[in-house]
């Protein structure tokens, strides 16, 4: 059975839990005492994740760290419809572009949340400013997409792992003092993501009402 | 914004929690903020912790002084946490006798930063009405939404608010629950910014699990919420117990941070309570009577 080394309040771990749920997979949680215990920095944990980061996925003797790598693996191995991680070269490249954007979201909106909630030593005000710059870019991209009939980050009929990679840091941003009030297209996109069958919440994320 | 104001004397003279003892890095200076005032703390050579008002020459991460500094603030260790005071605190801290029972698991679950005033967070802790909506599938579930009649008293002798005979249907009351059960709660508020909850143990019908929140007012609208569990659980490790508690608290966090106004209004006409809010009303009255003004909007005189 798939094992996920997981911390409940981690936005990065949530990406993997989301993907597992959306793919209808079952998994076993191995709780990691990330905060306050800093278990991810112990030598034992570093044998699984050399950089000392969560999440870590184990599947059939294959061990993988870094959430976006895990998304690519899970979609590639278990998504029979091929829509989560598309193979068409342009589309695949656009997905990769958004995975990079998601790294920046985790390092800004995500970092502000970790600073405020878990006292991680980062400049929270600088992180918030960067998060707003990224949210503005994201909101515009989504707004123009809506005008063109595109509901997702990439020009595809169905959501991709780009959604899963970007969603957690955005959905939890208010815990880091980054309001989404000025980003209506982001809020509409969040509701669309929440309505994908198999979507799951985590602490701090609420389900959307059914769509019209 | 949080707006600096010197705290009222009641608040100033309280014991305030600042860190879990187990998380104080040995040999190093740690830093936090209490009542808008930066304070530092460390363990000395023999492991005894002490606290002092932050000074520019000694910063977080520096080597800890080898002896207790002359200007050390009062401090004590209780329930797994280090407590201090910026005023003249009482000799003793409120009692949680269960903590000393040998077969209990005492776990310092975590300290989480929340953008909320301490009294708002206490009030949310006392509220059962939100269980089915915020802690769906764990501490409540629809259609079991009724908050049944319960009793509240403010004990003058013990100087605390006590809510008893609280009952609620809970699908997953604790780490050892084996399905839904009607759980009985007792809430104590023995300190303006601390609350202790007793709930039926799924393992032993005659005993209760204890869950406490000790709130450190960083400012009037920001806290560090320190959580302590003293529970009957012979099955799970600390990591699992912490995970359960953090999952539940993480669900409360956005609710707490979206309270408006952020400070708790003590004027009885400021918000419209329902019957289920009995304990909150008693708590507000108790704060008013004590003269606590920190983190609240005092009632007009």
The assigned CATH architecture of the largest domain in chain A is Up-down Bundle
Question: Count of helical segments of chain A?
Answer: 7
Order of helices and strands of chain A: EHEHEEHHHHH
For the largest beta-sheet of chain B, the strand count, sense and barrel status come to: 7 strands, antiparallel
CATH overall fold name of the largest domain in chain B:
Naphthalene 1,2-dioxygenase Alpha Subunit, Chain A, domain 1
- Assembly category: heterodimer
Question: What is the rounded Rg of chain B?
Answer: 19 Å
Provide a descriptive summary of the structure in words.
Chain A: Keywords: Transferase. Chain A: Residues 88-211 form the GST C-terminal domain. Chain A: Residues 1-82 form the GST N-terminal domain. Chain A: This is Glutathione S-transferase family protein. The complex is a heterodimer of chains A (212) and B (301). Chain A has two domains: 2-78, Glutaredoxin, CATH 3.40.30; 89-194, Glutathione S-transferase Yfyf (Class Pi), Chain A, domain 2 (Up-down Bundle). Chain A starts with a strand and ends in an 18-residue tail after the last helix. In chain A, α1 runs parallel beside α3. A four-stranded mixed beta sheet of chain A has the order 2-1-3-4, with helices on one face. Chain A is built from seven helices and four strands. The model of chain A has no long low-confidence stretch (mean pLDDT 96). By secondary structure, chain A is an alpha+beta fold. By secondary structure, chain B is of the alpha+beta class. Helices cover 17% and strands 33% of the residues of chain B. Chain B has helices at residues 9-12, 118-126, 131-134, 238-257, 278-290; strands spanning 16-20, 30-34, 37-43, 49-53, 75-78, 81-84, 105-114, 151-155, 160-170, 181-191, 194-200, 208-219, 222-231, 264-265, 296-297. A seven-stranded antiparallel beta sheet of chain B has the order 7-13-12-11-10-9-8. Chain B has a three-stranded antiparallel beta sheet with strand order 1-6-5, with no helix packed on it. In chain B, strands 2-3-4 form a three-stranded antiparallel beta sheet, with no helix packed on it. In chain B, a hairpin with a 2-residue loop joins β5 and β6 (81-84). The two termini of chain B are 24 Å apart. The relative contact order of chain B is 0.18.
């Amino acid at each position: 059975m798939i094992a996920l080394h997981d911390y409940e309040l981690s936005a990065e771990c949530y990406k993997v839990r989301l993907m597992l749920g959306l793919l209808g997979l079952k998994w076993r949680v191995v709780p990691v005492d990330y905060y306050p215990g800093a278990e991810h920095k112990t030598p034992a944990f570093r044998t699984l994740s050399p950089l000392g980061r969560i999440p870590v996925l184990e599947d059939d003797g294959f061990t993988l760290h870094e959430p976006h790598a895990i998304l690519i693996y899970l979609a590639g191995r278990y998504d029979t419809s091929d829509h989560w991680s598309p193979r068409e070269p342009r589309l695949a490249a656009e997905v990769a572009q958004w995975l990079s954007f998601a790294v920046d979201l985790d390092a800004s909106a995500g970092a502000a949340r970790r600073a405020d909630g878990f006292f991680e030593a980062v400049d929270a005000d600088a992180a918030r400013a960067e998060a707003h710059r990224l949210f503005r870019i994201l909101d515009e991209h989504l707004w123009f997409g809506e005008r063109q009939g595109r509901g997702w980050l990439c020009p595809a009929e169905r959501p991709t792992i780009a959604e899963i990679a970007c969603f957690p840091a955005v959905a939890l941003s208010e815990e880091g003092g980054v309001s989404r009030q000025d980003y209506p297209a982001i809020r509409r996109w969040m509701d669309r993501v929440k309505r994908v069958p198999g979507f799951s919440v985590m602490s701090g994320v609420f389900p959307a009402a059914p769509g019209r | 914004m949080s707006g600096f104001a010197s705290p009222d004397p009641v608040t100033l003279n309280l014991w305030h929690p600042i860190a879990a003892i187990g998380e104080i890095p040995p040999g190093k200076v740690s830093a936090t903020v209490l009542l808008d005032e930066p304070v530092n703390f460390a363990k000395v050579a023999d492991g005894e912790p002490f606290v002092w008002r932050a000074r520019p020459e000694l910063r977080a991460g520096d080597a800890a002084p080898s002896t207790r500094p002359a200007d050390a603030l009062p401090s004590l260790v209780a329930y797994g946490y280090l407590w201090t005071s910026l005023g003249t605190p009482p000799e003793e801290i409120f009692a949680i006798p269960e903590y000393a029972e040998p077969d209990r698991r005492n776990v310092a679950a975590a300290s989480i930063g929340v953008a909320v005033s301490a009294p708002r967070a206490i009030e949310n802790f006392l509220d059962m009405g939100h269980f089915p909506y915020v802690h769906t599938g764990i501490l409540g579930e629809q259609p079991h939404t009724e908050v049944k009649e319960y009793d509240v008293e403010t004990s003058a002798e013990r100087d605390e608010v006590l809510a008893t005979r609280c009952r609620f249907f809970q699908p997953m009351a604790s780490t050892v629950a084996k399905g839904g059960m009607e759980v009985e709660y007792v809430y104590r508020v023995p300190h303006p910014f601390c609350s202790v909850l007793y709930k039926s143990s799924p393992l032993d019908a005659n005993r209760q699990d204890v869950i406490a929140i000790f709130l450190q007012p960083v400012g009037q609208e920001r806290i560090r919420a320190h959580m302590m569990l003293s529970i009957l659980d012979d099955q799970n490790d600390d990591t699992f117990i912490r995970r359960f508690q953090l999952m539940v608290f993480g669900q409360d966090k956005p609710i707490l941070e979206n309270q408006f106004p952020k400070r708790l209004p003590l004027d009885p006409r400021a918000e419209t309570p329902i019957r289920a809010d009995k304990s909150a009303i008693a708590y507000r009255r108790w704060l008013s009577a004590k003269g606590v003004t920190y983190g609240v909007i005092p009632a007009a005189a």
